[in-house]
Amino acid sequence: MEINAVNALTYEDFVKLFGNVVEKCPLIPAAIWSYRPFKDLADIEAHMREFIHGLPDSGKEGVLRCHPDLAGRDLQSGTLTRESQEEQSRAGMTTLDSAESLHMSSLNTEYKERFGFPFVICARLNSKADIVRQMSERLNNDSATERERAIEEVTKICSLRLRNIVLSDIQTKL
């Protein structure tokens, strides 16, 4: 999809197309639509990143709470978003054995009890072993550090999802 096509989208179509680049947070693309015309993909990313980083701590935590547990209930019940399903699958979270599932469930519970939001990591950039290791390590962070770390992971996820939408159309034309 060329940037001119993105800029020509109606508000409704823009929100529909980019509504899940930040998991279950269509408010973010809704908020940046008025910055059109965008120069390029990097400009869209910058506006989204700026919006997310400009949120108060409670807003950032709200964004984080929209994310599902890794290998959690939504995965088991088939209610993950298409994007999360693909990302967790690529990272090996859909093929855990029973011991790994139990361990992930325990880590998810401990993490949410400690921080008040689910563990967020860009699964597409990490292996199953990396995810478990980082989750264990990040449990040692203080709340403010972990909130900012998790928000950085959100922006990585957002960037990759934006690229999937905008660049996939260009690549099919090549």
Query: Which secondary-structure class do the elements indicate?
Result: mainly alpha
Tally of separate helices: 10
Instruction: Give the amount of beta strand, in percent.
Output: under 5%
Radius of gyration: 17 Å
Shape: globular
Helix content: 55-70%
How many strands in all? Answer: 0
Head-to-tail CA distance between termini: 12 Å
Weakly predicted, low-confidence segments:
170-174
Main sheet characteristics: none
Mean pLDDT across all residues, rounded? 94
Strand and helix order: HHHHHHHHHH
Tell me what the structure shows:
- It is a single chain.
- This protein has 174 residues and is an all-alpha fold.
- Helix 4 packs antiparallel against helix 10.
- The longest helix is centred in the C-terminal third of the chain and has 31 residues.
- The chain starts with a helix and ends with a helix.
- The C terminus is likely disordered.
Brief description of this entry?
The chain is mainly α and 174 residues long.
Provide keyphrases for this structure.
single chain, 174 residues, mainly alpha, 10 helices, globular
Q: Which SSEs are present, and which pair or pack?
A:
Elements: H1 3-8, H2 11-18, H3 27-32, H4 41-54, H5 57-65, H6 73-77, H7 82-90, H8 98-115, H9 128-138, H10 143-173
